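Troubleshooting log. The previous structure file for this entry was overwritten by mistake, so regenerating from the original sequence record. Sequence copied from the archived sheet and checked twice against the printout by T.R.
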Amino acid sequence: MNKTKITHITRYAHPHIGGIEAVISQINESLPDEQFEKEVICCSNTEKSSIENGVKYNRCKFLFEFAANTISPEFIWKLSRVNTDILHYHMPFIFAVIAHFIARPKYKKLYITYHGAIVGYDKYMRPFWGIYKHFYKIADKIHVLSPTIINSDPILSENKEKCEIVPFGVDLKLDYNQEEVNKIKEKYKNKKIILAIGRLVKFKGFQFVIEAMKEVDNAILLIIGDGPLKNDFETYIKENNIKEKVVLLGAISDEKIKNNYIKACDIFILSSIRKSESFGIVQLEAMRLGKPIINTKLGTGVNYVSIDGETGLTVEPKESKELSKAINKLLQDDNLRINFGENSLKRIKDIFNINIIKNQYKNLYELGE
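Regenerated output below.
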């Protein structure tokens, strides 16, 4: 049987960690090796090209980063040598769009996964907006992670007929240590635990959650992650005398340890403030452990994953007072918190179960005529 060859085009890939990288890895892991040949073309100045778990990684050196793009002549050259069945781009990555029209790779079908809007470097985008829109027009399929994002984005709403929804999936097998979970609860003197996970950067909105904690009693906010705002957050925590309410745990790469903290928490918060947060995979990880969610109203897949009033509460972004009210509402109502947590787990089983998603990925890559 002839294999279908899929070539993913992306800025970064495994072992780089991020939402786009996680989606690409999940797609490759979901598709059976006996039916699919899998390749990734990406950029890296630290990792060499390799074959890992049946996936060929073509890694290209890049000269510099600019406006969330890696600028790489080697990337264009490798793209020019591509001959594949499905050429699958992961957007936004403007340099790759330009490289596509320069390199003229050979392919049967052109796919795009839309991972999020272009936010934060719009002024650099203006000269390329036309070619970017045209790129979506010539695509055969546009993979999106949630239905909510289609109508909220102008490019997707213009190409609705091409959009196919396949969300990110999670394994229902849980890997955590109950003894360690108990130790975490004891360490924080059995206070109610609020947990947030992500890089310490502006668009994650952690500054608003930290501020909200000034209006929350008998609870502690734990933040897993590292990033450029760490020192600013530490200074704010010290100056506002909330050391007993907010703890920055730093980055935790071990999945089991991270799950221990998720299992130990009472509320999970995703506080992002920009549409570049298009899905929020960490919500899934918390929901599969039966946790109620507080998220922000972004009009993206974030609000498809966790539903306001069903699996948690949704507040306006950048609103510390709304966050504190939502936190206090859940802390003061055990039944509501438990109910949201049970609904979270049910939603994961019904919609985001990886065993269901694997079949959806296979259907996505059916070439047809």
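The first strand starts at residue 4 and ends at 9. Archived copy saved in two places this time.
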